[in-house]
Structure prediction request, 273 residues.
Amino acid sequence: MGPGGSDVVAKRCPRPGGELEAFIYSEVLDRLSMESLRCYGFIDEGAREHGWLFLEDGGTTQVADKGKSFPTAFPHWLALLHGSASNLPIRDHLPERGPAWYLEILRAARLGLCQNLPERICGDLGRSAAERMLVCFEVLERNWHVVEERCEGLPWTLVHCDLQAKNILIRHTGPGIAFLPLDWEEAGWGPPATDLAGIDAASYWSTARRIWASIELRRVEEQVCCGALFQILSAVGWETLRLEAGSEEKAMRRLGIYAPRLAAATQALGLEV
Prediction:
């Protein structure tokens, strides 16, 4: 039970992720002039690899229904978060989440597909999706400098790395809506691109330029494209792990959905597939 008898959420999680989340809530979000969930601390399980993160109960109201766009106020809030956090001395305390991190995800996903393609991927549809992805991986790695160059247009900052609707709660307050992201275990220090998939570039830019005066709209638009790529690479990476673990049917169904999205994200960068 929290202050004043309020509810508390206890989240069991791997120790590194729990400690990172506790740091972000307590040492980053609490220092910004933005409403966020209160963190009551992290307790590890002795010599074990897990522990418990204790958070204020933020309710169950998500920022948007599945498949729906973020509300119009969200890009402005996100720009304020990125801009404000970029000025904090926290870089040395956060893992790097730049293009190099996503390149490693790409390479691991490609290896997973190559190892499973001959033996476990059955059916013309599944094989076609996997082969299409492998082509995209080859094109992307060969031209990864394009991604790196487009991630140079904005200052690096705190990035969540998994800003899906299910991970963002909302709370109605006097001034308006407060956005309350959860699950910061993948967060780190990187270009805003990591969080910009599906974000309206013009709305984000209109707020971000108040903090980063020299940024250009086209740079934000480029990072929105990179964010879409990063998001789909992360999703594909999770499914290749599922494939390796033996869940072939579910993994292949999702990879069949992701294959055209990966191709579209690659082409949006001006790369031919």
Summary: The mean pLDDT is 90. DSSP finds eight helices and seven strands in the chain.
